[in-house]
Amino acid sequence: MIEKIDLNDPHVIGFRIKGKIDDVSFKQSTYEVLKAIERDSHFNIYMEVESFEGVTFETIWDSIKLGLNHFGEYLKQVDKIAVVTDIGWLKGITKVENRLISSIEEKVFNPGEREMAKVWVSA
Q: Of 3, 63, 2, 5, nearest to 34 (Cα)?
C-alpha cells in the first residue's frame, strides 16, 4: 500500500510504502504526481519505504502506461527524490537511477535519517 504523507511543503509530495503495492493506492499516489505535473512547476518527491512485498500485475501495467505518457514532463519537473529505507536492493536501484537520470537528484537515507531527508528534499 502507498499512503500520502503531508510534509507541509507545497513543492514536496510525500509517500509511505508498506507491504504490497495495490492498484488503488498506486492510482491515488499517481493522481498526486499528475496534479503537480499539471501545475507545470518543479517539485520534489519524498518516499519512506518501510517494507515491500511486491506489486500487482495491474499496477505494473498502469505504471508502464503512466511512464510512457508523462515521462518527459516528469523528467523536466522533478528535481529531487529522497528515499528513506533500509532495504538493500532498493538502495542499490536508487543509486543506479541517480546515475542514469541525471536531471533528477536522488538520495537514499536510512530510517533514522528521516528528518535529514525531509530537510534535504525541501531545500
A: 63
Burial of 82 (0-12, 13-18, 19+ CB in 10 A): buried
Q: In the 8-state DSSP scheme, what is residue 22?
A: P
Amino acid present at 78 = V
**Cell numbers representing residue 103 in the block:** 536531471
DSSP 66-120: HHHHHHHHHHHHEEEEEEEE--HHHHHHHHHHHHH-TTSEEEEE-GGGHHHHHHH
* CA pair distance 27, 41, nearest whole angstrom: 21
57-77 and 23-38 helices, crossing angle to 10°: 20
pLDDT in tens, 56-88: 878 777 777 776 676 777 778 899 999 999 999
Q: Taking 70 as the threshold, does the pLDDT of residue 30 lie above it?
A: yes
pTM for the model: 0.88
